[in-house]
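Ticket #4471: complex job returned nothing on first submit. Input attached below:
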Amino acid sequence: MPARTLQAENLHLWRGDTHVLRGLRWSLSGGECLQITGGNGAGKTSLLRTLAGLMYPEEGRILWDGEDIRRDLPGFQGDLAYIGHEPPLKLDLTAWENLHYWIGVRRRLGDAELQQALERVGATDWLNRPVRTLSAGQKRRVALAGLALMGVSLWLLDEPTTNLDAAGQRLVGALIEEQLARGGLVVAAMHHELPVSGAVLRRMELSAGLEAGRA
Amino acid sequence: MLESTSAVSVPIRGPATSALGAAQLMLARDIRLAFRKRGQLIQPLAFFAIVTTLFPLGISPELSRLREVAPGVLWVAALLSSVLALEFLFRDDAHDGTLEQHALSGQSLTWLLFAKTVAHWLLTGLPLSLMAPLAGLSLGAPVGSLGGIVVSVALGSVALSLIGSIGAALTLGVKRSGALLSLLTLPLSMPVLIFGARATELAMKGAGFAPPLYLLGALAVLGVTLAPLAAAAAVRINLE
Amino acid sequence: MAWTWFHRLASPPHVYGLAARLTPWFAWIAAILIAGGLYGGLVLAPPDYQQGDDFRIIYVHAPSAWMSLMVYTTMAVSAGVGLIWRMKVAHAVAASCAAIGASFTVAALVTGSLWGERMWGTYWAWDPRLTFELILLFQYLGYMGLRSAFDDLQRADRASAVLAVVGVVNVPIIHYSVIWWNSLHQAPSVMQLGKPTMPPSMLIPLLMMFLGFTLLFVALLLVRLRAEILNRERTASWIREAVSP
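Support reply: We reran it on our side without changes. The output follows.
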C-alpha cells in the first residue's frame, strides 16, 4: 500500500513587502508528524494556509503523492482538514448542528457516529447548547471532535492545544497518535511541544521573514 | 463502514456527499441560522416600509399623484433594502472562519455560495416581494395589479440578490463596507430597476407586462449562471 | 521562443524602461494628430447643414466617448491577464487605466451634455446610451473605491480585477444601445461597416482625433504605469539603479 506523501519544493511566499517563506523544502510521509515552531510573525500560519491551498506561493510548489496540488485542488482539499486559530463554528448553532453540517458537506454522517465523537471529547452534557454559550476550551473540543470525524489523510493544525486544560492536551496527543497510526499525516504549528509521545515527530523552525530587500 | 477500494491508507468513512447534497445542507443551515437571529431578518423589511412611507410625505399625499410614481418608488425602495440586506450574506461566515471551511470542503465553492444566495433570497427578497403589494396599495395601486407587483418584485429581487452577491464577496474584508457595497452593486443593478419598474408600471395600468418580465427573467438567469462564479473567485481572493 | 516577449512584459524593470522610451513617441504623435484634427475640425470643415457650427463639439465628444469604452476594455483585459496569469505588471496597467478612463467618461458626458442642450434643448436626458455611460462612470469610481479599500496591495489588485472583468459587460451595451433601443442619441455614423455617412472634410479630422486620443491614452498610461511600478517595486534592488541620476 503506497503511503501518502506531502512535499514542499522551494516555497517562496511574500506577504506585502515581507519575504515570509524563503525556499522551504521538505517532505513528509504517512505516519509522520511535522511540528513547526517559530516566534510570532515567523510565518507558521502562512505556511499552513499555503499547504491548505488557500494562499498561493510566488515560487515553488506543493506535491501531494507526487502531484502538484494545483492540478486538482478540490480533490486535494477534500482529503485535508485545516483548523486555524479559532475553531470554525457558528455561534448560533449547537455543537451537534455545527458538526452535522461541517462533516456532512463532505460525507454522510450517521447520528451514532456523531454522538460517539462528541462524547469522546467530553461534550455529552453540552452538545445541544448553542456554541455561543460554551467556553473557549469547549469550542476547541468540538473542533477536535470534527477533526476526528473527518476521516481525511492530512491534518493542518494551527496551535491545536490553545485554551485546553491538561486533559484536553492529552486528548489532542491521542488524536494525533491515532491519525498517525492510520497512516495519516499531521502538520502542526506550535509554540511549545506537541503532547505526542513515541510517534515519528519531525521539527522545523521558521524564523521571522525578511523585510524588503528582494532581488 | 465502507470497504475502501483505493490504495489509500486512510479511507473516508461513509459515502462522499454530492454537490447537490452539500448545497442542500448549506441552504438548510443558513435558514436555520437566520431564524436564530430573527431580528436581523426584519431590518430590511422595516427599511422598505419606512422608505416607501417617505415618498408620500415628501411628494404629496394625493393618491392620484402617488400612483404615477409608485412603480419607481417601490423599486428604488426594494433596491435599497436589498443592498442593505446584502451585508449579512457572507459577513458572519467570514468573521467566524466558516467561510474558509466552505472553500476547503472539497465541494464546489460556486455551488455552496449559490446555495447561500438562494437562502438569502428566501429570507429577504421573497418577503420583500410579499410586502411590496402592501406598499403598492398605500401608493394607490389598484387591487388587480397586486399579483403583478409580487411577481415582478420577486423575479427582480432574484437578480438583485445574485448581482449583489458579487459585491458582497468582493467587500468581505472591508470594514464598514456599506457605502462601497452600494457603489459596486447599484450600477450593475440598474437594468433590473429599469425593467422591474416598467413591469410594475404596466401591471398597475392593467396592461400585459410579460415583455419586461421576460427581460427580468433573462437577467435572473444570467445572474444565476455567472454571479456565483464571480463571487467564488472574489471569496477565494479575500481568503488568500 | 514566441513567448519570450510575453515573459519579458511580465518583468517590471523591462516594462519600466520600455515605457520610458516609448512615451515621447506616443506623446508627440498624439499632440500632432490632435492639433491637426482640431484645426481641421474647428476651422477647416464646413458647417453642418442642420446644426451649423454646433456639431463641431463632435471632435471632442466622440473620441472621448470612444476612449471611455476602450480604456475600460483595456483595464478589464489587463486585469483579467493579471488574475489568470498572476502578472504584477498587468495589475499595474489596470490600476493606471482607471483615472484616465474616468476622465474620458466625464469629458464625454460633459461635452455630450453641452451638445444635447443645443440639439435637444436639455442638458440631460435619461436615454439608454447616456444612462449606461453614466453607469460606466460609476463603474470606474467603484473600481477605484474598491482598490483604495484594501490595505494589502495584492488583494486590492485581485479583487478589483474581478470587478473590472464583471463590469465589462456594460461596454457592448453602451456601444449597441443606440441600435437596440429607440434612442435620442444619433446612430453610429463612423463606426459602421461600409461607407460612413460623413463627407471626407468632416471625417478626416474626426479620424485624426480618434487616433490622437488613442495615442494620448497610451502616453498617459505609460507615464502612470512607470509611477505605479516605481511605487510597487520600491523595495526592489533594481530601483536604485534605475532611479539614481
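The longest helix of chain C spans residues 12-44. Closing as resolved unless it happens again.
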